[in-house]
Design a protein that fits this description.
The protein is α/β, with parallel strands linked by helices. The protein is about 35% helix and about 20% strand. α4 crosses α5.
Length: about 260
């Protein structure tokens, strides 16, 4: 797989508002801009609208008001264009009756790519996530961490310019989670896709990202932002570094404050 180091997408949201058919307002007057190639983490109270915002960026549901673009296009157009979007959920959502390589191949099959090209791209994607030896296995034969890596390989096989991840490691044990954090960072460092990462873990958000956005209660908005300026590549020793611990504490304080706030009616 080849990648242009400047191929990350630009995400621009201003005064974004999302009201569902039942009257629920999930997002209101939200302003977010993510530069090409940035890794941005979103933290906030449960149910605040973080996942809804990710779905808006993915073009899976439309905004009610405001402006939201990916590389200057409405998200649903960007998703259909060469500036590809990929979405990874907390549940790997693998098809249990398809082998690993066939699960990874699915996005390319849907685009009717030639079979030989699909095979090359799938092999490359599995090698990227260290699963080149399990391509003929079924999902049930894999651990939870391996299934999540297959899901990430399926996202990367399309060489996305924008990778959206919605709590992908939340159900994993801490050791596996930290290992996958490191693997994701290495993939991002190699590919420099733009990344939006939703998590409830302040430590995970701070370790992975260049910026942490703290979101307020529903209807969500950004209540605080923290820049993360630690050197790349990052390693496990960063998690015990005093500057890192202090930054995590600062984000945690802002998150606690956001959870206590209630937006004006």
């Amino acid at each position: 797989m080849t990648a242009d180091p400047t191929s990350g997408a630009h995400v621009y949201a201003t005064a974004v508002h999302k009201r569902f058919a039942d009257g629920t307002v999930a997002v209101d007057n939200l302003d977010v801009e993510v530069s090409p190639g940035q890794f941005v983490a979103l933290v906030g109270p449960s149910g605040c609208g973080k996942s809804t915002f990710l779905r808006l960026v993915a073009g899976l549901t439309g905004i009610s008001a405001g402006t939201l673009t990916v590389d200057g296009m409405p998200p649903h157009e960007a998703r259909a264009s060469q500036r590809r979007l990929a979405y990874v959920l907390q549940d790997p959502t693998l098809l249990r009756w398809r082998r690993v390589r066939d699960n990874v191949a699915l996005p390319l099959e849907l685009r009717h790519m030639p079979r030989n090209d699909i095979q090359v791209r799938v092999n490359d994607a599995l090698e990227l996530v260290g699963l080149q030896d399990v391509g003929d296995m079924f999902p049930r034969q894999l651990s939870g961490g391996m299934r999540m890596r297959v899901s990430i390989a399926r996202a990367l096989v399309a060489e996305p310019s924008l990778l959206l991840l919605d709590e992908p490691f939340a159900a994993l044990d801490e050791i596996t989670r930290q290992r996958l954090n490191d693997e994701l960072l290495e993939l991002w460092r190699q590919r420099r896709f733009t990344c939006l990462f939703v998590t409830h873990s302040v430590q995970e958000a701070t370790y992975l990202s260049q910026r942490v956005l703290v979101m307020g209660p529903r209807p969500t908005r950004v209540t605080a932002e923290h820049g993360v300026a630690f050197d790349e590549p990052r390693s496990a020793t960063l998690r015990t570094d005093l500057a890192f611990v202090r930054l995590v504490a600062g984000v945690s304080r802002d998150l606690s404050q956001a959870m206590e706030e209630r937006p004006a009616e």
